[in-house]
Amino acid sequence: MNHSATALVAAHPKARRKGWLRYSTLRKLVPYFYVSPATLLLVLLMLFPMVMVFKYSLMDGAIMKKDAAFAGVQNYMTIFENPVFWQSVAQTLYFTIMSVVFHFIIGLAFALLLNTNRVDPLIRSILRVLFILPWLFTAVIIAIIWRLLLDPNGVVNSVLMALHIINFKVEWFSSTRTAIHALTFANIWAGYPLYMVSLLAGLQGISKELYEAAGIDGANGLQKFWYITIPQLMPIIISIALLDFIWTMQVFPLVWMTTGGGPIYSTEVLSTFTYKLAFSQYEFSLASASAMIILIISMSVTYFYIKHQQRR
Amino acid sequence: MAKRSFKSSLLPTILTYLGLAIGLVFSAFPIVWMFFSSLKSNTEIFALPPRLLPDDFTVAAYLTIFNDPVKVRFFINSYFVAGVVTALTLLVAIVTAYGFSRYQFRFKNTLNIFIISTQTVPPITLLIPYFGMVVAFRIFDTYLALILTYMVFTLPYAVLLMTGYLNTLPKELDEAVLVDGGSSWTALWRVIVPVSIPGIVATAVYTFLLAWNEFLFALTLTKSMDLRTVPIGIQLLMGQHAFEWNEMMAMSVLGSLPLLVLYLVAQRYFLAGMTAGSVKS
Asked: Which 8-state DSSP code applies to residue A68?
């Protein structure tokens, strides 16, 4: 380390000749030179905008008025008094929690199925490739696929009617009763591969000796799963579930492209609620307050995520 | 005994295959349905009873897209923006990752936490100030606005991925250059970069994917059809001709193609990118 930094300084004869900085000082600056491009960009594109959005949220008529006045917490009060906001909170939570739970269940099930040696290795590796596919599709395309499949005249209704599970054509995305569930289902379909891939990597990292030792002690398959597999996978599960929670909570394109938050707010989530405030109603100050609320929720979960990552 | 071994080996195997078959239908059916729908005529898409394969294969939907300069432009824009973002992100990420991987310095941990937490900042929160800034700097409706703002979510992943990769390379590699009197800058480009190609490919593929799929900023920071990317193009078509299902499906197939090809060609790199967030760095 030391010696590499010395060599870097030695390679700059000019620095040596000028001598306006001592080598040791210059040497200490080297790492900052390397990390500065990304740091500067992220400060410019992240910290500065965050200060801006916070400022907007305390103003009256941000962006729209040239001389927007300071409004204090008025915008936050207005948001909290809006029943649609609370409906969006509840729907965002439902959507997020259901997604995280089913992403995990499906991801784990697929990882376990792909990890057994009961199946021909070739089939296993082909399926591994195929099972990840949903993850590659962009939200807009996922939205379109499911709008086609869940169209009242679409294949899902046809199959369900042929099986006598339903007896009329359900308007999955345009009925207030079903829209949020259809949306959640589409998101579950799109998001499990992250869990699957990570858990599969985790499964392959568990030492075979643990299972052998448990086998000698007379543990059955279920016990091995519960007392070895799950605890061993726990750190990965927690990491991904926290990240998934944060990302799913911020969902926008999927909702925008399937239901647009409707019918009658029944699929409104925090991000569509905020987006509409800003870009349909041009209430940028209110939207900023709402965006700050989303940021605060995300950052509180991020806090646990980082604490968890650092402990690992 | 024989009965027992039958029970303990054949039944679980059958159940495993059954599970895999269900999994296959669940994961692949919607995609296969999309693909074949793009080869159907519009009247056939909702035919009853539903059939997977079209009666008359037709590539009419694809031809319509190829012959429409507006739609072709969506693809050019997406390739251009995602390509430039990937190149710039890689450049910045490689340099930064080298700093992270090879040096100890004050604020390193703070900076690391900062970069990790940038992954989780809601895009909608940044969107409003971006809109204000982009208008103020007069770059609304330009490639520059997209390229610059996309970097905010491609960079953190790229830095983390590249740092993780560089950490796996032995320090002796670059130290050899330093001993010979070269600078660490030379060591980075002459020695580290050439041996980091797998890590760079993983990062590039993942960055491209993020940029290709971006929706929210593209929707809000551009306005003219000349600048629209594929996701926004599809959204606009959806609004305009909501019932041209075969064309929508053909656009979706074409819009997914680069990612599918990248995935099939560079599968293990893809997985590296995908698990970057969850696997310990």
From this structure: P
8-state DSSP, A108: H
Q: What is the ipTM of this complex?
A: 0.88
Q: Do B30 and A140 touch (CB under 8 A)?
A: no
What single DSSP character describes residue A252? -
Task: Establish if A201 touches chain B: CB-CB under 8 angstroms.
Answer: yes
Identify the residue whose tokens are 């949020």: A180
Which residue type sits at B240?
Q
Residue with tokens 């000019």: A14
Q: Determine what percent of chain A is predicted with pLDDT higher than 90.
A: 55
Report residue B277: phi and psi, to 5°. Answer: -70, -30
Low-confidence winner among A7-21, A152-166, A247-261, A269-283 (lowest mean pLDDT): A7-21
Chain A contact for B15 (CB, 8 A cutoff): no
Tokens representing residue B59 in the block:
């590539």
Supply B93's token pair: 């990420």
Q: Which of B9, B15, B27 to mutate to test the interface with A (most CBs of A within 10 A)?
A: B27
pLDDT for A311 equals 78
Torsion angles phi and psi, residue A166, rounded to 5: -125, 160
Per the CB < 8 A criterion, the answer to whether B226 and B165 are in contact is: no
- DSSP string spanning B54-86? -SS---HHHHHHHT-HHHHHHHHHHHHHHHHHH
| Tokens describing residue B245 | 């299902």
Alpha-carbon span A120 to A118, nearest angstrom = 7
- Rounded-to-integer distance, Cα B125 and Cα B128, Å: 6
Question: Which chain B residues are Cβ-neighbours of A32 within 8 angstroms?
Answer: 99, 105
Radius of gyration, alpha carbons of chain B? 24
Residues 90-109 of A with CB under 8 A from B: 106, 109
Measure in Å the smallest separation between the Cα of A98 and chain B Cα atoms. Answer: 17
Length of chain A: 312
Which structure tokens are listed for A89? 């909170």
Any bridge partners for residue A144, and if so which?
none
Residue bearing tokens 């799929």: B213
Task: Return the amino acid letter for A142.
Answer: I
Pick from B20, B149, B277: CB nearest A45: B149
For residues B26-45, give the mean pLDDT.
90
Asked whether B274 and B207 are in contact (CB, 8 A), the reply is: no
- B210 to chain A, closest Cα gap in Å: 9
- Of B227, B23, B49, nearest to A160 (Cα)? B49
Measured in degrees and rounded to the nearest 5, phi and psi for residue A60 equal -110, 110
Question: Rounded CA gap, A54 and A58, in Å?
Answer: 7
Of A50, A135, A253, the CB nearest to B215: A253
Query: In terms of Cα–Cα distance, which of A1, A5, A49 is closest to A27?
Result: A5
Residues 6+ apart with CB under 8 A from A50: A295, B121, B125, B126, B129
Measured in Å, how far apart are chain B's first and last C-alpha atoms?
Answer: 49
Q: How confident is the model at residue B168 (pLDDT cuts 50, 70, 90)?
A: confident
The confidence score (pLDDT) of residue A208 equals 87
Two tokens at B11? Answer: 């039944």
